[in-house]
Amino acid sequence: MELKRCYEGIILIFFINPNIKLMKNSFLLLVFVFSLSIPVFCQNKINTNDLIGYWKPNEESSQLFFWKDIEGNLQIQEICGSTGEPIDLISLKIKDDCIIARTIFIPNHWVTESKFKFKDKNTLVRQITGNAETTITYTKIK
């Protein structure tokens, strides 16, 4: 609390004392610049509502469909791009900055873990590890 009072006193001095106009302007500029940077830090948080829809890969790979079930839980379905067969979901974890999905492709028993992060609202980057290792970029279609 003492530190907070100290800052409040300094801020009060900046605005009351006209002899330190340069410091006041510098302080205001600093506050303005900091306030502009705050939304940039917050944009990396995953909003699951932004995932809902059909996502097309930028190369030959599986297609993704995200939706919410009747209880509001995020669901994912992955369809193999070469065979058209569904890829089975083992687990789905929603973190603050990403979605982690573990899947198994039954025909060859490949198990992979995918970490999905937004590049922007319509671009999703998927980092795959396990029996396949690659990074794929998806574009939201609908």
The 3D shape can be described as globular
* H/E element sequence: HHHEEEEEEEE
Q: What's the number of extended β-strand segments?
A: 8
| Major sheet description | 8 strands, antiparallel, barrel
Main-sheet strand order equals: 1-2-3-4-5-6-7-8
Stretches where pLDDT is under 50 for at least 5 consecutive residues are: 1-10, 36-43
Rg from alpha-carbon coordinates: 24 Å
- The level of helicity is 25-40%
So how many helices? 3
Structural class: alpha+beta
Strand content: 35-45%
Key structural traits:
142 residues, alpha+beta, 8-stranded antiparallel β-barrel, disordered N terminus
Structure overview:
The protein has an eight-stranded antiparallel β-barrel. It starts with a helix and ends with a strand. β6 and β7 form a beta hairpin. Residues 1-10 and 36-43 have low confidence and may be disordered. It has helices at residues 2-16, 21-42, 48-51; strands at 53-57, 63-68, 74-79, 86-94, 99-105, 110-120, 123-130, 134-140. The protein is built from three helices and eight strands. It is 29% helix and 42% strand. The protein has 142 residues and is of the alpha+beta class.
Quick rundown:
The protein is of the alpha+beta class and 142 residues long.
Secondary-structure blueprint of this entry?
Blueprint: H1 2-16, H2 21-42, H3 48-51, E1 53-57, E2 63-68, E3 74-79, E4 86-94, E5 99-105, E6 110-120, E7 123-130, E8 134-140
Antiparallel strand pairs: 1-2, 1-8, 2-3, 3-4, 4-5, 5-6, 6-7, 7-8
